[in-house]
Amino acid sequence: MSALVVRDLVVDAPDRSGQSILGPISFEVAEGEHVLVIGPSGSGKTTLLRAIAGLSTPKSGSIEIFGQRASDGAKALLSPGERSIGLLFQGGALWPHMTVRKTMNFVFKNCRVARSDWDARHAELMRLVDLEGFDDRKPATLSGGEGQRLALARALAARPRMLLLDEPLGPLDAERRRGLLERLDSLQQDLELTILHVTHDPAEASGVANRSLVLEGGRLAAAEA
Question: Quick one: which of 57, 68, 79, 142 is 20 to 30 A from 85 by CA?
């Protein structure tokens, strides 16, 4: 079964200029794949992730997620919370005033995780991303790798079946990049995740990805094995 089917998707610029910044674009992602989306700045990579996650409204085309139509043209058929997707934003986008524990509790509340399950779910996620003992730390006190692992825990909070990663390794040095890639690869296998991974660097995750899609000027330029 396909985890994701994108058909003739077009997204216009948010300034209502009428200019399309993405599409038309069509592709499929199979369940369990780790697919890189490669392209320079401005090629439409982040716009694509936001449309799939339900955070941007397409002009036309359709998006199907795990066999369910999520959007048909500008009409959203599934809300962001119904799409079984976790999104790791570029740069982590952590809330600077919140500790690790408060961050996760806020996410659990918004994901409608039962209050009685918060402690167990928090402990599980901290083990998964190797942040046990960090509950009282704020983002400013975390290293780049620790911050990205917290952002990853946040993306996994609602037990998604698909992860959308927007330049997840950007702020990290080479050693921390390797560490996070190994963590992602392990999580993908253990949690049976499908991953769509945006990057400007073709070599960034070539060792763990199944294949690559290349975006240029909002269009799909090539598919690489």
Answer: 142
